[in-house]
Amino acid sequence: MIAFNVVIPARHASTRLPGKPLLHIAGKPMIVRVAEQAAKSGAQHIWIATDHHAIANVVHEHGFKACLTRDTHISGTDRIAEVVERQGWPDETIVVNVQGDEPLMPPELIRAVAQHLHEHPECAIATACHTLHDEASMRNPNIVKAVLDKQGNAMYFSRAPIPYPRDAFAAGVGLPADLPVLRHIGIYAYRASFLRDYGQLWTTPVEQYESLEQLRALYHGYKIGVVIADSAPPAGVDTAEDLQAAIEIFKKTVSCE
After folding, report:
1. Superkingdom of this entry's organism (predicted)?
2. For the chain, how many structural domains are there in total?
3. Cβ(82)–Cβ(73) below 8 Å
4. If exposure means fewest CB atoms within 10 Å of the residue's CB, which of 55, 165, 195, 209 is most exposed?
5. Could you tell me which residues are beta bridge partners of residue 7?
6. What is the CATH number of the domain that holds 227?
7. What is this structure's pTM?
8. What gap in Å lies between CA 47 and CA 42, rounded to an integer?
């Protein structure tokens, strides 16, 4: 099994669900549930990167490690980069970013993106996608699509429908069955060397217009390898309804503690 670390960025502030990382799911705070899923992936080290003392305290109480980071970070990637630097991890270290609101992220997928990056030294980042089959999802701007090159690396990510089936849509016949439409799954594996460089990369207009941070890496010439998953993982927790759905899933698999 390859060696890799997981860092879970967790902010206390949330406009739709304040204090989200500390909300309980089947008897444990959500951030702890995320860390437990990450632990099943076989990661060597798991760190929670947070700027909030209450989150750090609850993480420590449940036997996980937390790094109190600066409160000025613009993104979770910047927060992860601070952990990498403070821990002094070598440039070749593989670091998987698991979002702090993804308590149902499959451990197999965490391991798969780390493995993919390990097997593709030409890539600085690895992520995941799965195949889309319906036109409504393809046209949904909240669902990010990806187009790959022949090596399976990302060419572009967009909220727009890509690749665009011009003739089929003009004829009103819907989405062709053989069109390679891929939905992006928001999990990333990075090399520590890339994370050290990340803070020096300027933000690009296309990243700002699409509101997609990964486009910065592509713009600056970094390769992003893509794992094709069989299906999408369960949704993350952004709303009270999402939280209740996660609770119901956990009730079926664990006992409340």
Report:
1. Bacteria
2. 1
3. yes
4. 209
5. 47, 97
6. 3.90.550.10
7. 0.92
8. 14
